[in-house]
Write a structure and sequence with these properties.
about 15% strand, about 400 residues, eight-stranded antiparallel beta sheet, alpha+beta, Beta-lactamase
Length: about 400
């Protein structure tokens, strides 16, 4: 499917430029043939087998298209092909959490211990999925867990590693005073999921995150998106992936909901959510502001490896902040936010510019296309200032 918006008359654009401070830096979405040519060029340069792209303008989905193949048989990647969302799940979860804040069931800055009936270290593994949550018993000797808040979970500042199982001793540790630094952590999102699902029922918690997100997906018409693989879904239109060596990898059918990254989606579906997020649909004005508000300054040279030292103050990017489930930045077109999603065979990104509620959604089932993100974002949205250099360093497109 390809859809487009009509170009505004030149005089209207000229008049608008006097009132929108960053309008002079925005650009019209390129034509379909131009987009096709640019994507084809990047796919050739990166050797990527498949990718899909969507454009949002003024909070509305205006263009959706898929390119390449979805498996080694050569079946085409289509706009309805189910693809792995990876860490874009975190953005969906943050939006869902803010709906709970709107409903008075959570407070961003109240310690999570106040949302639980019992001390966190006293909770054992999930009976159905023993590895669904962290081993919270490991925190019994570290009282700093008592200071962790929902905001810290959503801004990657709990002090946890990315996941407990990547620790040398495979135990859960707090590496710094919670709330003081940014260090990427899916484990923090999983902790907040645990609190939503096992928190005080008298407070309105004890809710299934899969069902909460499903409610939003249904409302937005996202019929092929879920945080868990639908076991009764026989649909073969699913994307396998390719790693940085060009080796095909099967699509993993995840059996448990994980707020850190279990979402499957399509390029037809996900832009509907991104349009809702950038326009504030489904959220109070205050909660929409909180998501993209600069909550915690990011002071490292790159996102990975974890626990990097702070750069000297003079070398820190002054506009780089953690929002809730997203990263905030300022660029030539003003305030923006973005989120990436990555594994050994997946390369995803969402980039939004607040002025004009303009966003680009890229899903790729070939990790190598990641190396072309910066070029494609610049080609479609213009110069945004999105901090891909901080996100990837020299690892863009690598498994």
């Amino acid at each position: 499917m390809k859809t487009r918006v009509k170009a505004l008359p030149a005089m209207v654009v000229l008049i608008a430029s006097f009132y929108l401070p960053f309008a002079a830096f925005a650009q019209m979405v390129p034509s379909s043939p131009a987009l096709d040519a640019e994507v084809g060029k990047i796919m050739t340069e990166t050797h990527a087998n498949g990718m899909a792209v969507a454009v949002i303008d003024h909070g509305k989905v205006s263009y959706v298209h898929a390119y390449g193949i979805r498996n080694v048989k050569g079946d085409p990647l289509t706009t309805d092909t189910v693809m792995y969302g990876a860490s874009l799940t975190k953005m969906v979860f943050a939006y869902t959490v803010m709906q709970l804040v709107d409903q008075g069931k959570l407070n961003l800055d109240t310690p999570l211990k106040d949302d639980l009936d019992n001390p966190l270290p006293s909770y054992g593994p999930d009976q159905a999925f023993p590895d669904k949550y962290g081993p919270y018993k490991d925190l019994a000797g570290d009282s700093r867990w008592e200071t962790i808040t929902p905001r810290m979970c959503l801004t990657h500042s709990t002090g946890f590693s990315n996941f407990w199982f990547v620790e040398p001793d495979q135990k859960l540790h707090i590496h710094f005073e919670p709330g003081t630094h940014f260090s990427y952590s899916g484990e923090g999102f999983v902790l907040l999921q645990f609190v939503v699902e096992h928190g005080r029922k008298a407070q309105g918690l004890g809710l299934d995150v899969g069902e909460l997100t499903r409610s939003n997906f249904d409302r937005l018409g996202m019929t092929r998106t879920s945080l868990v693989w639908l076991k009764d879904n026989p649909d073969p239109n699913v994307a396998d992936g390719w790693n940085d060596q060009g080796q095909a990898q099967p699509h993993e059918k995840r059996s448990k909901v994980r707020a850190s990254g279990s979402m499957n989606t399509t390029i037809s579906d996900l832009p509907k959510f991104v349009a809702a997020l950038v326009s504030g649909d489904g959220l109070s004005a205050a909660s929409r502001t909180e998501i993209t508000k600069p909550s915690l300054h990011i002071t490292t040279a790159h996102q990975f490896p974890l626990f990097l030292p702070d750069l000297p103050v003079s070398e820190q990017r002054k506009d780089l902040y953690a929002g809730l489930g997203v990263v905030f930045f300022d660029g030539p077109q003003g305030h923006g936010f973005y989120k990436g999603g990555h594994d050994g065979q997946t390369a995803n990104t969402v980039v939004c510019i607040e002025a004009g509620q303009r966003c680009l959604v890229i899903l790729s089932n070939d990790v190598r296309f990641e190396a072309g993100f910066a070029d494609l974002v610049r080609f479609i949205l213009g110069d945004t200032g999105v901090p891909f250099d901080w996100e990837y360093g020299d690892h863009a497109g690598k498994s």
